[in-house]
Design a protein that fits this description.
globular; binds zinc ion; two-stranded antiparallel ribbon; alpha+beta; about 40% helix; about 10% strand; 5-stranded mixed sheet
Length: about 325
């Protein structure tokens, strides 16, 4: 994807400057890059030569407070040109992001990328733009955001809350990017070592640790993923949540925000109830619900539908 290309072009520059003894680096570069390990340069490059046909990148914005400023338009094919020109829609999507993410958390974001999800089926993603996990890029698939009308059935809201959930659980106050897996006594999501008191470590210790050996044995086998979900279905709010603990947190957080507090004591509900133990998360929940007007009783479940992604697995190699 875009970020891999950035790394590749950086690498080419480096290679041309260094003596050519780095075959391991070349080989490494040809390997699929794990999305959670991709780090974009702190400052986007000024050149405008990146093609976006493959990854669907349309326009990149920087986030300045609650506003956005265009950094670059990607070279796009004719069918994406209309989407690129329609900056009103870029702004409309941004408006919803700003409605969901309070200013106090917006400081974790410094880039907003509008892309087309048609090619890879991704509706949204987040990826760190600083190695220390203090800043993130949020990407939204513009075509999906307007599929059937803007934010139809609240699907875009669902996507944004899900992606926000990743940043809440993986930012530098939660995860130590400097600690390697070998030095990590708690859960290691890939971005770094989850702090002892982090949300994702609590989720992992209470609801994943006992099945982690089984989970680790799954690998890439789709049928084993299915079987794992079938076996532990009562633990997950959606099938997508069974992808890994990070996706589980994002899905649990989304359910925590959009639905009433669960009263039934199912295993999946216990995960949602876990988030109610954190006062700052319940404050955040209240703030988002107020902003999206989900607070009117009885309508919350209807305003945002659990998105279709919730019933399928994401593709391997997707960003968060
Ligand atoms: Zn996700």
């Amino acid at each position: 994807m875009l970020l891999q290309k950035r790394l590749k072009s950086l690498l080419i520059v480096l290679l041309s400057l260094l003596i050519l003894n780095s075959f391991t680096a070349c080989e490494k570069d040809d390997d699929p890059v794990e999305p959670d390990k991709i780090v974009t340069p702190d400052k986007p490059k000024e050149d405008n030569t990146e093609q976006s046909d493959e990854d669907g990148s349309i326009t990149l914005y920087s986030i300045e407070g609650s506003d956005i400023k265009k950094l670059k338009d990607y070279k796009v094919s004719d069918n994406l040109l209309e989407l690129q020109k329609d900056t009103k829609k870029h702004q409309e999507i941004w408006g919803l992001i700003g409605q969901i993410i309070p200013n106090s958390y917006m400081t974790f974001f410094n880039e907003y990328l509008v892309f087309s999800g048609e090619g890879n089926g991704t509706a949204g993603y987040v990826v760190q733009t600083k190695e220390d996990l203090s800043k993130w890029q949020v990407g939204i698939a513009m075509d999906f955001a307007y599929d059937g009308g803007f934010n139809k059935d609240g699907e875009l809201s669902y996507t944004i809350i899900h992606e926000f959930g990743h940043v809440i659980s993986l930012n530098d106050t939660q995860v130590d990017a400097k600690k390697t897996e070998n030095d990590c006594q708690s859960y290691f999501p890939g971005e770094g070592c989850a702090k002892e008191t982090s949300y994702i470590n609590a989720l992992y210790q209470n609801h994943w640790k006992d099945i982690d050996d089984e989970f680790q044995a799954i690998g890439d086998d789709e049928s084993k993923k299915e079987a794992f979900y079938e076996k532990y279905q009562d633990r997950f709010v959606t099938q997508y949540a069974s992808t890994n603990p990070a996706e589980d947190f994002a899905e649990v957080f989304t359910h925590f925000v959009i639905f009433d507090k669960p009263t039934e004591d199912s295993h999946a509900n216990k995960k949602v109830q876990l988030l109610y133990k954190y006062p700052e998360l319940t404050d955040l929940r209240n703030e988002i619900r107020k902003s999206l007007k989900l607070d009117t009783k009885s309508k919350s479940a209807r305003t945002i539908k659990v998105w279709k992604r919730g019933s399928t697995f994401g593709k391997k190699g997707e960003k968060r």
